[in-house]
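Format notes (please read before filing issues)

Several people have asked whether sequences and C-alpha cells are stored in separate files. They are not. Every record keeps both together, in the order shown below: the sequence lines, then the C-alpha cell lines. Line labels are part of the format and must not be stripped during preprocessing.
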Amino acid sequence: MELREAPMQVKKVLTYLAVAFVVFYLFTRPAEAASAVNGVVDGIARGADQLALFFTRVLT
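Then the structure lines:
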C-alpha cells in the first residue's frame, strides 16, 4: 500500500464506522433519532429562510 492510499483507507473506515453508528442509533433509540433528524431539517429550513430574507433585502 502506498503512502497516498492510507488517507483514503482511513476515510473509508471512518465512513463505515459512522454509518454503523447511525444504524445502531436508529435501531436502539428511534424516537431520539427522529428528533435529531427533525432538528437538523428545522435548522436547514431556518437557514434557507434567513438566506432568502437576506437576498430579498439586498435586492430591494
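For reference, the curators noted about this record: The CA atoms of residues 39 and 54 lie 22 Å apart. The mean pLDDT is 91.
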